[in-house]
Amino acid sequence: MTIADRPELLSVQGITKAYPGVVANSDVSFTIREGEVHALLGENGAGKSTLVKMIFGLVKPDAGQMRLRGADYAPQKPGQARAAGVAMVFQHFSLFEALNVAENVALGMENPPPMRELAARIRAVSEEYGLPLDPGRMVGDLSAGERQRVEIIRCLLQDPKLLIMDEPTSVLTPQEVEILFKTLRQLSAEGTAILYISHKLEEIRNLCDAATILRRGKVVGTADPKATTARELAELMVGTTLTPPERRRADRGEVVLGVSDLTLASPIPFGTELKNVSFTVAKGEILGIAGVAGNGQDELLLALSGELRAPADRVRINGQPVGDLGPEARRRAGLVAAPEERLGHAAVPDMSLVENALLSGAVRKGLTQRGFIDWAGAEAFAAQIVKDFDVRTPGTHVAARALSGGNLQKFVVGRELSQDPSVIVINQPTWGVDAAAAAAIRQAILDRAAAGAAVVVISQDLDELLEISDNFAALNEGRLSRPRPVEGLTIDQIGLMMGGAHGMEVAHHGA
Amino acid sequence: MLRLEKRPSPSRAWTIATPVVAVILTMVAGGIMFAMLGKDPVEAIRTIFWDPLFNAQFAAYSRPQLLVKAGPLILIALGLSLGFRAGIWNIGAEGQYIMGAIFGAAAGLAVYPVESRLIFPVMIIAGGLGGFLWAMIPAILKTHFRTNEILVSLLLVYVAQNILSSMALGALRNPEGGGFPGSRNLSQIPAMANTELVAGTGMHWGVVVAFVAVIAAYILLQRHILGFQIKLAGQAPRAARFAGVSPNRLVILCMGISGALAGLAGFFEVSGPAGQISIDFATGYGFTAIIVAFLGRLNPLGILLAGLLMALTYIGGELAQFMLGLPSAAIQAFQGMLLFFLLAVDLLSNYRIRLARKEIA
Questions:
Q1: pLDDT tens digits for range B269-285
Q2: So what's the ipTM on this one?
Q3: Are B135 and B90 in contact (CB under 8 A)?
Q4: Which UniProt keywords apply (chain B) (predicted)?
Q5: The CATH fold of domain A255-497
């Protein structure tokens, strides 16, 4: 029996949802059959999350109907969705780090069984689906991949008919992705339908039976992902033809940034300690640092930007020890940094773009004189960033939080790149950014490197790193692997550098 | 049903309008309270807000009082507002105010009866220093031991009050005072007196310093990188660290400035309107200034207006107690309403109220 012959599970007809100022979904319709793995594909902001929140009862649609197994389906809250057999694994986990796995699972249940019985059920389900998990372990000690397993098992215990997964692979190593896919295929073979949200095209081609493509809240196409190329899918998703970034290789110069044997405790609760991190970056070089989220990326950025201090000689810029200097002194030495979190770290939500330009630009752009702020200069700097990086904004006096994620990211990256730096450190340069903006940001980074800057790009997007880096290393539990040239690296080698499959050696032995 | 919806950016119009709306709501609610106490609400409100300034019978006395009372409130509130903007909560300005008065008075009395033009400036410096040092206790405990500055600064108020009593009864007691508690009357010693500069206005050196401080704080916040860093630290502490602001330095700075300004206010009070160190010298300016700082939206010009308004409710409140027999608790409740309504209405600058539409299921 092919998928097309199976009975319909969920049909969504003409769903519309508007928020003030933006239509998140407009007349969206699609159908999922039992046991089908259905991809919901689209760029950030295309309306995927709003759509699945409506299916899961978190948001109510303005118009349209849903039918589940032939019956009207209009969940008022997630509890009703769960009772109807719909379960969801969120991109951001809702787990308590100070509780163990079984306690976390129990918290999500309406009538949890006794702890001992629950632990036995967790063990049984985890073995059945090749997702090893010890119910007694503290969630704070688990890797991101293991935490995701807690969420998945929490869903599987309800025996769902439809499992919604929102960007599940963004926190996994390639090996862990393979294991997850085995589990999902097993579920699908047993008749559970899966609604799989992603913008990673190769994964969708590998896993899914059908794809619905969203753009700006509307369905712009459906495709059989196995019969469509990744490029065709991408162009459907973006709506334009994509051009890969162009690189001009600069001659590799002398070492500009040197980090040697850097060991630092994390200032973040349940953070990751950096352990003996060593690397160098030369003039014109881009070093890509991969790793599953939470393996020390944030800490490494803090240690490089100067927000976290180290012994002086552990970090050197142009041979000068800067490890014990703060962010301002490091900027003076030529280093700029762009943290991952845009609102609250890289930029202040309620401040204008002018003030946000001053935030990190004051030192290198000479925007203060004897402590007094040159507001005209700051405004000119902000206007220049907006112009050079095509930031879509009504003006430079709007608050940072009024910008979309992609536009604010362009502003933040643009602000750092426009300061004529000799060292650039960027964490997640294109996280949550649409494809066109991401391409522009990558091109800007490549241009800076070609102009002679030493660049460190920390990212969880492997494709991005392989596209722009000269050398490649991975963070795993706070340790950095030895950097290797990107050319000739295989995806398996990369996966092993990232730590392989965390604690999953026994997975799927019987499967 | 009503629903709150976050505005894309804070509304400028509402930021300016909220204090006015809050004052009007306070008048309405206060009027109801006064009516329940059996008083004519219109007359009570008029006695509080109008009579101190324009009633021929009282204005001659109460109009100068406006600046006398507003001066210390504005000076203390300005200092506090810098810390509040940075998320540093100095609640103990009252204690710093007391210590400023003691230090300033002691510096002058130590050389009594020498007459010199230098004595008054030295006393001013000593007053500021007293408040500064007292504020450094919670500041340094916070930067070195991560104690909570709210608790430490507040508890130090009670320590300061006991030091005040001890000074009034012991070290600073007037040796020619016939055994009564209290220091010599500074306002009657020419070299130490903080005199009224323009007769009949209440304008003394402390008021001048308060006005200068308003301008300085305005420039600091609008044009200086330090003011920018203070705002950064309050709105987004992580972004402030990213920008290179040292949180510890900011704690010392903000606590130091607010302590010094409170100390100055204390000194100008003891050498002028109060006249002497006495057991009942502290009358709560340091606490009321917290209300003034928020009523003025932590903005220097707003604080100037809020200080004058708060002084008016004090003077008018006393007048109402005296003329209408309103209990002092009712006046305090009235002042509390002002802060309550201000905080409540404040929501409107960041949110708008919407009537929720019926949602289609």
A1: 999 999 999 999 988 99
A2: 0.84
A3: yes
A4: Cell membrane, Membrane, Transmembrane, Transmembrane helix
A5: Rossmann fold (3.40.50)
